[in-house]
Amino acid sequence: MPEDYCFILHELGDRDKCPPKALRFFHSAMPLMRSQIEQGKLLTAAICGLGKMGHPEVARQVFDVGVARGYGNTVFAYSSMISAYARSGLAAEAMGVFGSMKAAGLRPTTISYNAVIDACGKGGVDLQFTLEFFREMLHDGLCPDRKTFNSLLAACSRAGHLEDARVMFDEMIHLGIGRDIYTYNTFIDAICKCGNMELAVQVMLDMPTNNVRPNVVTYSTLMDGYSKLEQFDEALKIYEKMKSLKIRLDRVCYNTLLSIYVKTGRYEEIARVCEEMNVVGVNKDTVTYNSLINGYGKQGRLDVVAYLVQDMRERGVAPSVLTYSTLIDIYSKAGMYGDAANVFLEFKESGLKADVVLYSSFIDTLAKNGLVECAVWLLDEMTRVGIEPNVVTYNTIIDAFGKSRIIVEEDAVGSTAVGVEGCGRHVVRAFSQLARGIGRPVAEEVRRSEELFCILGLFQKMIQQGVRPNVVTFSAILNACSRCNSFEDASLLLEQLRLFDNFVYGVAHGLLMGYREVWVQAPSLFDELRQMDLPTSSAFYNALTDMLWHLGQKRGAQQVVLEGVQRHVWENAWSEFTLDLHLMSCGAAQAMVHAWLLSIRSVVFAGRDLPEFVSILTGWGKHSKIAGASTLRRVIEALLGSIGAPFNLERFNIGRFVSPGRETPCVAGIINPGSEGFQKLFFGQEEIAIPVHSTIEAACKAHPNADVFINFASFRSAAASSMSALKQPTIRVVAIIAEGVPESDTRQLIAYARSNNKVIIGPATVGVIQAGAFKIGDTAGTIDNIIHCKLYRPGSVGFVSKSCGNGKLFLFIMIVNLSLGRDYCIMTCSDHENQSSPDGGMSNELYNTIAHVTDGIYEGDVFPGSTLSDHILRFNNIPQVKMMVVLGELGGRDEYSLVEALKEGRVHKPVVAWVSGTCAWLFKSEVQFGHAGAKSGGELESAQAKNQALREAGAVIPTSYESLEDAIKVEEGKITPISEVKLPKIPEDLKVAIKNGRVGAPTHIISTISDDRGEEPSYAGVAMSTIVEQGYGVGDVISLLWFMRSLPPYCTKFMEICIMLCADHGPCISGAHNTIVTARAGKDLVSSLVSGLLTIGPRFGGAIDDAARYFKDAYDKGLSPYEFVEGMKKKGIRVPGIGHRIKRGDNKDKRVQLLQQYARSHFPSTKYMDYAVQVETYTLSKANNLVLNVDGAIGSLFLDLLAGSGMFSKQEIDEIVEIGYLNGLFVLACSIGLIG
Fold first, then answer.
1. Which pTM does this prediction carry?
2. Which ranges carry the Smr domain (predicted)?
3. Which of 316, 387, 457, 862 lies 20 to 30 Å (CA to CA) from residue 606?
C-alpha cells in the first residue's frame, strides 16, 4: 500500500535524520507505485521527511524530478516543498515555490498559505509583507485555521509587534478557532519580547480557564523573558515554581537557567545544573556550551574554557558561528593572540558560513589590538566573499587608527605585508608577532600621518558601497585627528572630508582653524545632535573637544563644552559647585574644568559665598565603572596642579577632587627631627591634632598634596633643610624664616629652585600671609589688623612694594582662588644682597592706607628676578584690578622699568606711586636706610628723580608720603566696591579668656572616633540622639567606631549576621572550656571571659584575618587556586579558612551557605568570595573535609564588603586586615556566647 511507504518516509524524517537512507528508500519504492497519484503521494512524503531532517536542498532535487516527470504537479507536493523551506527559515525560496505553484495553475490551499506564512515568519520577512499573504488567503475565500494563526503569532513574536499579536490572538476567538498550547506559548513569547512581563504572567494564569495547561515551554519562555530584562530573581522564582509542580525541564529551560547563573556569576549553581543535566539525561547542545564559554571567559577562567571546548569535541557537539566569535573575543582580551588566530583558522576550515557579525567581531578584535592593516585586509575579504560590511565594521577600523601597534621585524620584513598568501597566514603572522613582542615600532609621526589618508580612503569606500556614515563615524574620525598630533594633517583630512559632508566636517574644520564665522552654523549641528541618544551625542562632543584641545584650540574646546552643557549632553555633569567628569574624554574634561573655574571666579567676585566645599568627580565606586586611578583622574590632577587650583584628592574616594575652603587647617604636618606623634592645637574653637614627623621625607610621603615648606630652623641648619625640601618632588615653595643664612648658601638655594621651577621665599622673610587662608610671621600684624586692613578677601587694587624694611621685593597676594582654600602662598624673594633684620613696616602701613580709602587689595605676586613693571603689566591684564599702587624706594633703577612701560602705553589703568627716601638729601653723607638696597648710588637713583620720572610718565605721584592716601582716594570713583563677606567668629585667646573668667581647658586625650563633649556624646560625628532616633543597629555602631564612617545598610547587616552566626560554638571548644574552668574556680565574669578569649588563635576563630590576608594576596596576584594551594603547601603553611573537623564536601557548614546567600543577594561584587569557593573546589579534590569554613567565608566576604562599598582605599583595606579588625568580629561574637 502507498500509505505504508509514506508512513516509513515520515518516520525516517522524525527519527533517523539520515537523508541518504531516505533517498534510497524513496527510489526503491517509486517503481512500486501504480499511478501518478500514488507517485505524487510518495513524493510528498519524501519531501516532508527530508524537510524535517533539515535538508531542503535535497528535497528540492526530488521535487524538481517529480515536477519534470509529471507526478509532482500537485498542490500537496508544492505545499510540502514550501514547508520544507519554512522549517529551515528559507523564506525567499519558499515564496519562490509558492509563486511557481500559482504560475503552474495550481490553486493554493490553506495548507499552502500556512506553509508560506510560516516560512516568512521564520525567515525574518517584514511583518507587513507576511500579512499580505494572510489577506490574499482571505481574498481567495480560504478560511484560516489554528495553524494559520499560530504561524502569524510566531511572525509577530519574532518581529516584536505585540499589538499585531494581540489582534491575531483576539481574532481567533472571533472566528471560533480554539487556542492550543502552541498558541498560548507563542503569544506569551511575543509579550515577553516586548518586555511586558505582567501581561505575560496574566495570560499564563488565564490558560487553565480555557482548558489549556501551561507546559515546560510556557515556563521556559517566562524565565527567558525575565532573564533578558535582567530580572533574575523573578526568573528563578519561575524555576522554583516548575520544581514545585514537578515539571521536567527541557534543554531550552536548562540553557536559560545556565545563562542566568552565568550572568550573575553563580558558578556553584552552574556546576550543579550541569550535573543535574547529566543525571536526567539532557545533553548539552551548542547553546549550552556557548553560554558556559562566554560566562567563564568573562571571569578569566581560561582553563575551564579550554575544558569546555575539548568537551564539545569529545561529545560531538558542533560549534556554531557564535562559538567561534566568542572564543576569539575571549582569547584576544586575554592577550592570547595566537590562540585567537587558531580559532579563526579552525572556523575557516569548519565550512560554516560566516556572517557580517562574525567578521565585524573579528575585525573589532584585530582593530582593538592595534592590527589595523590586518583588519582592513579582512574588510576586503568580506567584500570578496559577498558579505557586505555595515557601518559598525567601518567605524571599528576608523576608530582604531592612531592606536595601532604596527611593527617591523628585525629582518626588515613588515608584519603587515599585503602579499602574504591567504587570510589565515596574514592573521596568524600579525597575532604571533604581538604575542612574542618581535620587532621594532614604526615611527609614530610617519605612521599616523599616513593613517589619516587611509581613513580618507575608507570613507570613500563607505560612500561607494552605499554605507551611510553616522555620528559614530564622525566621532571616530575626530578621535583619529586628535591622536595624530599634527595640526596640518588633521586640517587637511577635514578639508577633504568636507567634499562628502560639508555640514559636519565643515563645522569641525572651521572650529579647528579658529574661524569665528563657523559659530553661525555650529549651533545647528549641536541642535541636531541633541535629538540623538545621550551616549552617541556625548561621544561626538568628546571627540570634537578632544581634537580641539589637543591641537591647541583650547578656547574653542571650552565653547563646545559649554554648548554641550547647555544641551545636557553629559547628564548631571555641571552644577554651580560640582563637576562630574567620569563620562567625558580627557580633552573635554580639561576644557570643562577651565570653563567651570572661570564660572566660580565670577561667583567669588560677585560677592557670593561659596559652599563648604566644591568638588570634581573623575570616577569611582557607585558613580561609575571608571576606576578612581584612571587616566582621566591623572590628567585632571596634573591640570589642577599646573594652574594652581586648590584641590586635593578626597581621602576615601581617590577619584574625587575637593576644595574644602577653610573648614580644615592649611598646615598638614610638622617636622621635628627625632620626634613623631601629634601636636595639639586650636583651629577656631576646635582642638585638633597635627601629625609630627621626624624627617622631611616622611612628612612629604605622608602628605603628598602639601606643596609648601615653611622652615623655622635656625641659620645653622636652614640652608641644608631647605635644600632637602626643595629636592622633594611634591614641594613647590620653600619659605625660610631664619636670619643670617650665608649668602653663598642662599645663592645655591635660589639657583636650584630656578632650575627646577620652584620658589624660595626668604631667607629672613618678614612672614607670609594669604588672605582668607593663613599668616606666618609678623607681616600684616595681628588678626585685628588683618580685619582692619580687609586682608580677608580680594579687593580691586593691585599693590606692589619694594620696601619691607629689609630691601626685599614684597608683593601681597590675594588671588581669586584664595576663597577656595589654597594651602600655600608666595610672599617674598631675596635680592641676594642683605640678610638684615626684617620689620615689614612700610608694607603693613600701606595695607592699612589702601584698605582705608578703597575696597582693598586684589593681588600681588613675587617671582625671583621679577621687577615692578612685570607685576604692573600683569595687573593691567587682570579685569578685577581697577588700579595699581606702587611703593618704591631710593637706590637701584627698578622703578625706571615701570617708567618705560608707562611711556610706551603698555599700562592702561591708573597707577599711584611713591618712592620713599626723599629726605636723603638732608644728610651730608650717604645714608643707608635700613638695608643694602635702600641706598642712593647717584642722582638718578634718588627718590626725587624717580618720583619725577614716574610723574612725567603719567603716574599719580603725591607731594609727600602723608598725601599718598589722598592720591589713592582720588581714583576711588573708578572702583565699584565688591560685596563684603561674612567673617567667621574668632575665639578668644586662652590667656585673655582666663583673664576675663572664660576658661577653655584643653583635653589630655584627643579621639577622632567618639566625643563626649557638648550636649550629648557622638560616635564619629553622629550624635547619640540620631543613633537612637533613626534606629541604628549594632552593625551601624561598629561601622562608626571601628571604621569611622557610616557604611551602607547591607554592610552593617552583614556584620550583625556574622556576630549572630559566631556567637556560640558549644561547650567543647577551647575558649568555652577555659571560661567554664575559670568560672568554677570562683573568678569573676570578666576574668572568666578573658581566659576564654585568650585562646582565640589560628586554631580557634583567629583565622579570619589570615584567611582574608592570604586570599587577597593570591587573588590580587592573579594566582590560580592550584598555584595558591600548592604554593602554601611548599611553604608549609595551612590555607587559613579551609578545613573543618566535622563538615565535609557533602555536608557543608550551613553558616557559610547563609553568608554566601546574603552576599550574592546584596553585595555589588563577590570576587574574593568566588575565589575562595574556587580554592575550596580544588582542596575538596584532595580531601573531603577541606571545605571553606566560617572563618574563610567571613574573611573573603569582608574583603568584598570593603572593596565593593567604594568607601575604602586599597591602603586602608590592607591596614584593616593587618590590624585585626576582622578577628575583632569573632571576639565580639564569641564574648556573647562565653558570657551566656
1. 0.45
2. 579-661
3. 862
